[in-house]
Amino acid sequence: MALDGEKDIDHIRLERRRSSAWVRWPAGWWGLLPSVFSLLIFIGYPLLQVIGFSVLDWGGIAVGKFVGVGNYHDMLSDSDLRESLFTTLKFAVLTLPLYVLLSVFIALEIEGTRFERPVKALMFLPGLITVAASAVSWYTLFSDYGVFTALTGIVWKWGSEPWAALFLIVAFTLWQHLGYGILVFSAGLKSIPSEVLEAARVDGASEGQIKGKIILPLLRPSLVFLGVVGSLFALQSYTAVFLLTKGSQQTRVLGYYLYKVAFEDYRFGYGAALSVFVLLLAFSIAALQGRFLSRGSAA
After folding, report:
1. What is the pairing mode between strands 65-66 and 56-57?
2. How many domains does the chain have?
3. Which domain holds residue 25?
4. Number of alpha carbons in the 13 Å side-chain half-sphere of residue 250
5. Looking at the DSSP assignment, which residues form a beta bridge with residue 56?
6. Are residues 11 and 143 located together in one domain of the fold?
7. pTM recorded for the entire structure
């Protein structure tokens, strides 16, 4: 009897520990619940809807017809999609290296100087202006009768020359986002211990060697982050193309082509399939960039 009583007491204690542990756990989870709930409602549910629409032949009004993977199969023979992918690739090749290199260069040059804060403020200011307002100002500046033409006498033929239109979009994108890249690298620079740099100087390292052998390798996490963000900028670029060039053939990037298919041609099913394709492409590029740079860091 005494043994049975002790077993009952141990069982009660064990149940109390389990119940108290269960009571303690939800305290942290309840704090995450609003964020998780918001992600499910505003990201998870719309994503599931897009995936559902991507298997339909749907114009946005009548009931869609189920076509399975037909929309994805049509991508293989879509010449306009291939052309927009090639344009996006050209845009990324022109924009991303300049974006990263200029951000690193300016962040290194102004670090610790008296011009650091004013330069950061001026470079970040374009990012605070709405894209629409910035595009209107650039359109006015570089039009045939704009300020640039009046001051220099040079007509920027971005309305008729393919290369000029693409370079205009590249310059506009760099102007708008460069301040963000400078801030990211500046934060990375400030996280580097000053003792490491001072030890290198004591050992006789030049400033060039310090930047190339110490600072840049330590900035690799910032480089990974900006590489991923810059790639997403290239894939999602739409507003500047729409406002500056009206989606002309030479600047029809993937983001604008998706908009044209869905909201001009009213092929919402195919547009949803393109959205899924862009999402998978963005994830793949981000994963490849992270793996490549992490391997370089390990080496």
Report:
1. antiparallel
2. 2
3. 2-38
4. 16
5. 66
6. no
7. 0.80
Please report which helix (H) or strand (E) contains residue 56, including its range.
strand 56-57
The rounded distance, in Å, linking the Cα atoms of 126 and 178 is: 9
Task: Tell me, yes or no, whether 91 and 9 share the same domain.
Answer: no
The mean per-residue pLDDT over the stretch 167-176 comes to 90
Tell which phi-psi region holds residue 60, choosing left (phi > 0), alpha (psi between -120 and 50) or beta. Answer: left
Average pLDDT over residues 154-177: 82
Return the residue matching tokens 């009548």.
62
- From CA 283, how far away is CA 299, in angstroms rounded? 24
Domain contains 87: yes
Do 139 and 260 reside in the same domain of the chain? yes
Show the tokens assigned to 175: 């102007």
Does residue 192 carry a pLDDT above 80? Answer: yes
pLDDT at 6 over 70: no
Question: CB-based burial of residue 47 (10 Å sphere; 0-12 exposed, 13-18 middle, 19+ buried)?
Answer: middle
Taking 80 as the threshold, does the pLDDT of residue 264 lie above it? Answer: yes
Residues comprising the chain, all counted: 299
178 vs 21, residue with greater confidence:
178
Q: Is residue 118 part of a domain?
A: yes
Is 160 found in the same domain as 87?
A: yes
